């Protein structure tokens, strides 16, 4: 059996403390699969659970394998302004590796607020 050619794709893992979304595309940006925690479980409180994140990544990986993707560039993103990715990020990444994908790079693409709109209250703030 020949060694399969490594066709790369991009895995976008979005994790908040309420949900986990794994979105796999090819290098051009065409969606191969997009699975969220709500598609795996019916319980709202479990959508951000690491165990559910593992199943989310497994379902997304199965669809990517059918297309022929064998390697992944991983981009992990958390909610804007949060302290770090949610509880499902590590579990989803570990599950993708366990499925046999070669991880080419991991990048944290969490958006960082810089400045933003002016705070209400005037020059000397709100006086109580």
- Integer tally of domains: 1
In CATH, the homologous superfamily goes by the name: Ribosomal protein S11/S14
Cα end-to-end separation: 76 Å
* Classification by helices and strands: alpha/beta
* Name of the CATH class: Alpha Beta
Instruction: Please give the oligomerization state of what you see.
Output: single chain
Q: Roughly how many Å is the radius of gyration?
A: 18 Å
β-sheet strand percentage = 25-35%
What is the string of SSEs from the N terminus onward? EEEHEHE
- The CATH topology turns out to be Nucleotidyltransferase, domain 5
Pick out the low-confidence regions: none
Provide structural commentary:
The longest helix has 18 residues, at 50-67. This protein has 2 helices and 5 strands; from the N terminus they run βββαβαβ. The mean pLDDT is 91. The chain has a single domain, classed as Ribosomal protein S11/S14 (Nucleotidyltransferase, domain 5). With 128 residues, it is of the alpha/beta class.
Quick rundown:
With 128 residues, the protein is of the alpha/beta class.
What characteristics describe this protein?
Nucleotidyltransferase, domain 5, 2 helices, five-stranded mixed sheet, 128 residues, alpha/beta
Give the SSE layout.
Elements (H helix, E strand, L loop, with lengths): L6 E9 L4 E7 L4 E6 L13 H18 L1 E10 L9 H11 L3 E7 L20
Parallel strand pairs: 1-4, 4-5
Antiparallel strand pairs: 1-2, 2-3
């Amino acid at each position: 059996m020949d060694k399969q050619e490594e066709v790369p794709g991009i895995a976008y893992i979005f994790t908040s403390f309420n949900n986990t979304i794994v979105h796999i595309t090819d290098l051009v940006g065409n969606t191969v699969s997009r699975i969220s925690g709500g598609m795996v479980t019916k319980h709202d409180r479990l959508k951000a659970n690491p165990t559910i994140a593992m199943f989310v990544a497994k379902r997304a990986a199965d669809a990517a394998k059918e297309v022929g993707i064998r390697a992944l560039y991983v981009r992990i993103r958390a909610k804007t302004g949060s302290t770090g990715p949610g509880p499902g990020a590590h579990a989803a990444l570990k599950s993708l590796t366990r499925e046999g994908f070669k991880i080419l790079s991991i990048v944290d693409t969490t958006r960082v607020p810089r400045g933003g709109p002016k705070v209400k209250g005037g020059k000397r703030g709100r006086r109580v």
